[in-house]
Amino acid sequence: SVPYGAAPADAAPVFSLEFFPPRDAAAQDRLVRSAQQLHGLRPHFASVTFGAGGSTRDGTMLAVDILQKLGYQVAPHLSCIGSTKESLREILAAYRQAGIRRLVALRGDMPSGMGDMGELRYARDLVDFVRRETGDWFHIEVAAYPEMHPQASGPDADLEHFVEKMRAGANSAITQYFFNADAYFDFVDRATAKGVLAPIVPGIMPITNYTQLARFSDMCGAEIPRWIKLRLASYGDDKASLRAFGHDVVAGLCQDLLDGGAPGLHFYTMNQAEATLAIWKEVGPPPTR
Ligand code: FAD
After folding, report:
1. Which one of the listed residues 18, 86, 164, 274 is annotated catalytic?
2. pLDDT higher than 50, residue 81
């Protein structure tokens, strides 16, 4: 039997990176520098996030262009909430024109109080739309939540909705980040039992800043285990110790995931190279240039 995923047992793990669109010229310089530093790792692809309602449409396209010019295979994220079918169609056409062959299809999160929810309600509807519009042109990734999406009515309902996205035509999935490897393996087992054989790649969040991590984790429903939280909080302003501990925790998690059969790793780089580079060098394929 194939452990944790669809790919044949001898398929090489897929290692990828995630960036976000820069807001200004200084942020753009940081993105370019980080992407240059990380390029030597030869990731399978780099993804670029997309703000709900198309709020970062131009920024996402700019970042896609920057990364393509640096030699990356790029997978733009596309979210449907707050967008019309027409605007999604235009974006898909622009990506096809640019030779993009992979997308991360999401529902997205509408900022509270922002009006129109758009014409497609769930990521499943977007996957279905992209398949109808563009056939098999794109490899479609979707999001998975080993610790449950925070708005789901329960773990079984959330799993069922994940399975629906895969059935609608997604090729593989990337998870929300997590620090409990057991939650990932449990999710993959439950998805496999429902017939999902496609790769479900763990999303990895390097730990570099406790306040920011705690805020993100509250928002997205990722649990920071108590022992990790206590250690991180204890470092206060001692950034070097925090980073060293964070590195050990996340590199250890990555190794456990790969040893347990995870079909790759997707790094949330936060547009910073150092932490991802250090983890990759410990657990990833060797850089080739
Ligand atoms: P869905 O799969 O549509 O699920 C959303 C919620 O609806 C879940 O609770 C699900 O259980 C429920 N649901 C689904 N179908 C149904 C149904 N038929 N009936 C009732 N309930 C249903 N956000 C961005 O804005 N931009 C990004 O670039 C971005 N990138 C991301 C990348 C990854 C790898 C991940 C894990 C998340 C990313 N997000 C991004 C966040 C994501 O948009 C949010 O988590 C969002 O709330 C859900 O998106 P989804 O695609 O998982 O939604």
Report:
1. 18
2. yes
Name the residue with tokens 């999401």: 106
The one-letter amino acid code at 59 reads G
- 11: confidence class by pLDDT, cuts 50, 70, 90: confident
First to last CA, the chain: 36
> What are 188-238's pLDDT values in tens digits?
999 999 999 999 999 999 999 999 999 999 999 999 999 999 999 999 999
> What separation in Å is there between the alpha carbon of 287 and the centre of ligand 1?
33
Q: Is residue 137 classed as helix, strand or coil in its secondary structure? A: coil
pLDDT at 9 over 80: no
Minimum CA distance residue for ligand 1 atom 24:
108
Amino acid in the structure at residue 33? R
- Nearest atom, ligand 1, residue 125 CA: 3
Q: DSSP letters along 212-281, please?
A: HHHHHHHHHT----HHHHHHHHHTTT-HHHHHHHHHHHHHHHHHHHHHTT--EEEEE-TT--HHHHHHHH
